[in-house]
Structures are given as structure tokens and as C-alpha cells.
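re: ur msg from earlier - yeah i can do the adenosine-5'-triphosphate complex, just paste it... oh wait u already did. ok heres what im feeding in:
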Amino acid sequence: MARKIGSRYTAHQILGRGSAGTVWLGDGPEGAVAIKLLREDLAADQELVGRFVQERAALLGLDHPHVVGVRDLVVDGNDLALVMDLVRGTDLRTRLERERRLAPEAAVAVAADVADGLAAAHKAGIVHRDVKPENVLLDMQGPLGPGGAHPALLTDFGIARLVDTPRRALPQPPAAGNLRSAKVIGTPDYLAPEIIEGLPPRASVDVYALATVLYEMLAGFTPFGGGHPGAVLRRHVTEAVAPLPGIPDELWQLLLQCLAKAPASRLRAPELATRLREILPGLAGHPPLDIDEPDGDQAAEEAADTATGPYVSGATGSAPGAYDEALYPPVAPGGSRPRGAVPLVHGSAAPDSNRETHTSMRVPGPDELAGGAHGTARAPRAAGEPRAGSARHREAVRRRRVKLGLAAAAVVAAAGLGGWFASQHGDSGEDAKPDVRHSDAATPRPTR
Ligand SMILES: Nc1ncnc2c1ncn2[C@@H]1O[C@H](COP(=O)(O)OP(=O)(O)OP(=O)(O)O)[C@@H](O)[C@H]1O
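and the outut:
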């Protein structure tokens, strides 16, 4: 059923749905396009429409082979739509759902494309803030690259930031104690620790998210994902990345550098793109890594811990130990994380229960984050290693947790996690980095 969008475009058929709206296959004066029609409640929000219009120049100005171009912005009655280049292919999430993990060469080729796209955006002063497999489109009509990878293009620039605002999105947390009132915008698995800690997001958050996507392409799971969203956030801040058995060392070192907790330790996007392309030839013929995902039952335990733990204690005025299900949806029966259960805007429905999407939640305080330091590490197992889950294994895990908990408590008591984290950033040299504005300012500021 065709539908007119403004005076110039016609939407013909739905390509897919996201949390902010529906993407249509359409056409306009210059041929086939993809039209992202924002949800009606978003389109009816005058403040939001104003921000989109204000952003017009930035959204339309990004022209790069690895960025999905925005061609037009339509504000027409109840419709608010972004007209984009049509990418004939699929998104990376769909490919990962099908293949689980990619061979290192293909994974690195995809990541290098995305890093190129990010480099262009950062140069133009735009931070993406929501790099994840759903936002990486694979152009099946493009030429095959290293490892048989199709060209990858990053989409949804600045959309998360534009759509998610404090206006009525969330109940405000009390402005007391060490709780910060800023919100976290993004998708839990890909959120850089400094965002969780409440620092303003800069270009390095995109590099962290891209490194997470690369890890996921190689491993079949993200480094800190699994269980309750609160547990995921804590792991980003407190845990080291578990090594991937069999990964070529050069690639592993690159991943570690870009997953560094301190933003200044990460590579910038152009350097990352260069390094990835440098190591590509050495990965030719390397098979996909043969590893197993950390156990689901462990994730379930972690989720249970989190639900009764200190993370959200008192955060929204609830009783200690309780948590607000509207903000932190419960874990599905069986312990597996409900992908797509955390809406971009409070109150919106998840577009597809199999899809991971954005989250919007308050930033936990340092002492709340410290509560996560007690042994939630999820180490991947080399294929063939005995699967955890036996009674003996569970007892060992419990004992290890107690030990780790005591150790963590000692560390936190001695130094204070907040102080530790602040010092990581305090001398990080982040200020010396290019000053990349968020996509909600009116005029792009050139990088220094
Ligand atoms: N420019 C495009 N060309 C072709 N298909 C697209 C284009 N943009 C998005 N799509 C497809 O439309 C679907 C929905 O995209 P959308 O960006 O709305 O949601 P998402 O990124 O999957 O989720 P969310 O917005 O909640 O993060 C995806 O399956 C994607 O593959």
C-alpha cells in the first residue's frame, strides 16, 4: 500500500521497524530511497521536530561511502521522516543472527569500513552515540572486499540523541547524594564506561562501541553483555575484557586498546581504520574463532544478583534492593537477555523482541557501580572445555565470587571507585582530542 510522504516521496513497502519508527522502501525525484518515518508520538512533539530541523544541515551534510546518506528531511502534517540512501542488503545484526560469528578477515573488513565512516563523522564534529550491529548496513550490491565482506555503511547518525530528550521521557531521579541526573543514551552492550559514569560522550565512545561490535563479530557475543542491563553497565566500568581463545595477537591488542576504560587510551577512528586495514592481509584464510559463549546460567545468576543488589537501591525513590521495572526490564525466564526489551524512549514498545535496541536510563553513582565489582566476569571458553553449570562448578563460582567480592570491597574501601574512575579520566588527556560536538548543536564546529 503506497503512502505519500510530503510532496516528493512515496513509501511503498516496509523494510523494517526500529524503536523510533518504521523504515520504508520508497521513491522520490531521484529514484529509490529508504524513508524512516518516525513514530507518531515523536512526530507530534514540536520540540523534537524543531531539533530535527535544526539538525538538518548536519544530517544532510555527511557524505561518505561508508555512511548512509540522509538526502532529505520531511516535516508534513503528522509525518516526520528522514529520506535516506537505499542500501540494498541487510544489516549486520541479521548477518550475525544467521552466521553467529564471522571469520576475522571479514569481521575486520566490516569494522574498517565503519571506522572510516566514523572518522568522517568525527571530522565533521558528529558523534554517532549508537554504534551497534543494527546500525551497520551491508550493501550486497557493492563489490566483495577482503574475506568476502560486502561494503559496510553506518546509519542512524545522531538519531538517538535527537529523539531521546529529558522532556517527559523518564521520571527524574532525586538530585541527592552521588546520583547523577544525566541519562544514559545508547544500547547497554555497546556503552562506553565514561558515559555510564556520567561524562559527556565524545568521539572515543564510538570507537569503544565499534570495538565491541568487532569483538561480537569475532566471538558471537559482546564482551560485557548478558543478564540485567544494570549488570551490563557495571561490567563496562569494572571488568576487564575476557580474552578470546585463538584470536590473532595483533587483532587482540587492537581490540584491547579500543576497549580501554580510559577514553584517551583508545585509538581515534582514523587510526583504527588504518590499523585494521594493515592487519587485514595477515588474517586471510583464518577460520572463525572456535569458542563458546559464557554460560546462560551464570548470566541468570548475575541477573538475580542485580535485581536484589545495590545498583538501583533508592534510585527512583524505591525501597533499597528494589528496582524500577519500567527502567530496568526483568530478565526473561531462563536467564537469557531479552534483546530489544529496552526502548529508546520511555514508554515505547520494543520494535521486535529479537532485536536489541537503545536504552535510556539514569547514570548510576560510583558506589552503585562499585557494587558490580563482585565477580560477574564472563570468560569465553575454548570449544571442548567442560561446560560450567554442574553443582561443583556452581559451588566454585560462588566461592570465587565471595573472594572477589571481598577483594573488591577492600579495593573500593581503600581508594573509592569513584576516585579511581575520575583519576582515569582526569589525566586522560581527553581534552587534547578533537572537540567533537554532539549532533544536537546547530552548527558543525570544525575539529582542532
Ligand atoms: N537506508 C536503509 N536502506 C535499507 N534498509 C534500511 C535502511 N535503514 C534502515 N534499514 C532497515 O530498516 C530496519 C529498521 O531500521 P531502524 O534504523 O529503524 O531500526 P534499528 O536500527 O534496527 O533499531 P533502533 O532504531 O531501535 O536502534 C533495519 O532492519 C534496517 O536493516
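cool cool. The mean pLDDT is 71. ping me if u need the other ligands too
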